[in-house]
Design brief:
Number of helices of chain A: 5
Helix content of chain B: 40-55%
Order of helices and strands of chain B: HHHEEHHEHHEEHHHHHHHHHHHEHEHEEH
Largest interface: A-B, 24 and 21 residues
Radius of gyration of chain A: 14 Å
Oligomer: heterodimer
Largest sheet of chain B: 4 strands, parallel
Radius of gyration of chain B: 28 Å
Distance between the termini of chain B: 52 Å
Chain lengths: ~150, ~500
Amino acid sequence: MRAITEWDPDLGMTPVDVFGFFDWATDRLRGMGLVRDPDRLREQLMAREAAGSTLVDTDLANPHAQTSEVRGCLLFYTKLRDPIQRWDGRHDVDRILITLLPEEPEGEDMARLRMLYRHMADEVFMKVLQAGTDRDVQQILLTEGK
Amino acid sequence: METGFRKSLIGYLLNRRDFVRGSELSAALKVSTKTISRAVRQINQQSGQHELIEAKRGRGYRLRNPEAVSFGDVGCAMGDANVDVSRLSSIERRDEIVKRLLITAPQKYRMSELWAKYYIGDSSMATDLRALRLMLGRFRLSLERVSGYVWVEGAEADIRRAISSLFVDEGDLANHQFMQPNQSIEQRDAAFVNKQLDLIEELIHAEIPYPYRVNIFTHLYILIERFRRVGSLMEDTTCPEGYGGPEEHSKVMDVCRSVIENVKMYLDADLPDAEIYYLYQYLTSSRIEGGLSTPAEIPEEVRSATQYLIEQVALDPRYGDIDNRELFSGLAKHMKPLLNRLQNKIKVNNNLLEQIRLEYPHLFRTVQDATKRLEERFGLNHIDEEEVGFITVYFAQAVENLRMPVNILLVCTTGLGTAQLLRSKIERRFSDLNIVETVAVKDIDAVLDRHPEISLIVSTVGLPESLTMPTLVVSAMLTIEDQERLERTADQIRSGEAGR
């Protein structure tokens, strides 16, 4: 499982909406050679948002998909300079953790991912994801997600 | 808003010692609860730095410091400074007088001086005397009156008990207005007492929980104050009634000796051994987990009383199925110090009483009736509502445990992400929900085939319309609103009311 963090990136547009963010994120992942078809992945993430809010705590969204567009489990965490207004129609978000799983994830990755989400119910852990520094976030994602 | 109405509101609160619910004020003063809340806000805004009325959600309103409130304050709060203490309510007046008499008992006071500032007639004074006698009689104290002088007479233990019961509550402690109206608490004494409580905890290797810590604090503080004011001590060195000095409690006695030794040094006075025994009574009347008692030490009388109480409550068909054994082990530990408290006439305040009554009205009444039978059967002193409230909590917990678990299936897109997060949150917050599995939305049918016992699907994503069983879509945050919906749905499933 890979964990990547992006801190205050230039998304090339203001203001940013959910579509614009997914467009940037999937393209960024394609640039790293981690995603096959960014447009398709973006549509999958948008579909997940339409099915129900992915907000997991204040200011933090967790879009996710199980998709053939990735080869391995992937965590892509972004801290934005300016929040995306009304991410789910109601709440603003400035931290986004995208979780991507291949169609057939490895057992070890699944176990680690499950553990990561169980830990997210812990307030201290969640606080880091919500408001932690670059270093703190990297540390917990590497610890729990690598 | 009318000044008259605000005066009525404050007057009403002056006649009540504890919180008064908004609904009661609304009914009594014939205005809406909103008007009450607005009036309180305005009175507080106009009463300067210190708010006159304390408002607590779920409990209502009360005057922050009725002893210090005169209609002069009220007048100021309403832009009218021409009212004086002579307008104090009769209850307030008697409280002030009895407090002065008790704290300095057996000091004698000339009646004309004691009542002078209230400007009342002889008949009102006579009514006050009758009321005070009644009040003091409850503590085996008498109000003596000879040649125009009045004073309180009785045993030191009873005087302290009366002070503790009539004038000391947590609010007083928090507001630093303990026994001295309009004066700050003796911070040094309070700090010393707190240090002794810490020492007790250190020596018994356990924490003294609420409300027992408040009680022991009060006991030691009154001891010091009584000594400071009138040099009054326990009468002799005779062990107070009820102290048997059991072998296993010698450790507790050692702790009490150490503390009283410290008090002696602090006051630079020789205190009688009775003080050790009194402190011993307070300690053994407190439920201190892991410190003073072990389950094996539960005496037969406590066992019988606990069992009898459970049986009496279980006579009500609603509580007939409570888990006797589990309830017994918790309740017996509470009953042991409770029986000591009853024997030693030690009262504890229960700040959650109103909440408990509101939350479990029927159970509270059932427990109250059962405690009356318990008193008769075992010849106990009266078990007051505060104690009934504590006992009710044990039964309420047993009733909660009775609730049939609801088997649920957690769903998200992958079964690995938000459903796992939801799992952790639900496990922490709902002991009566049994999570059968956590799955991806595409696998629901297969899991339902394998697990026919599942009666609710909780999901973070929309679910297929084809599902025929109860479902609930919640956010991965599991907000308070989500939790309430989940609880409601689970209750509906238990009662057979839930549908898709």
